[in-house]
Specification:
95 residues; mainly alpha; rod-shaped
């Protein structure tokens, strides 16, 4: 969020934004972690299938790429928003 917009928010609105950003951050972390876990499970299944078939298996990772990239970008954006809101809260000495 732009510094001018953060400065124009009231204290209550700023604290509400902080809560929303924190919840969004937690959701992105949880879903991103589950996605990476799912990718690891898929890769483990591929390794087992590859060993069982004598190297005839191929790992299809392409459907996971957009999801992983989306959550990586979401994490970066939300983290920067969270940092700017936390800086504004510290500047106003709200807690």
């Amino acid at each position: 969020m732009k510094p001018e917009k953060l400065a124009s928010l009231t204290d209550e609105q700023l604290l509400k934004q902080k809560k929303i950003i924190k919840n969004t951050h937690n959701i992105i972390l949880a879903v991103g972690t589950l996605t990476l876990f799912f990718a690891c499970v898929m890769f483990g299944y591929h390794v087992g299938k590859d060993a069982a078939t004598g190297g005839q298996s191929t790992f299809n990772y392409k459907p996971l790429l957009p999801v992983i990239v989306f959550f990586m970008l979401g994490y970066v954006v939300v983290s920067s928003e969270k940092k700017s809101i936390d800086d504004e809260i510290k500047k106003r000495k709200l807690g």
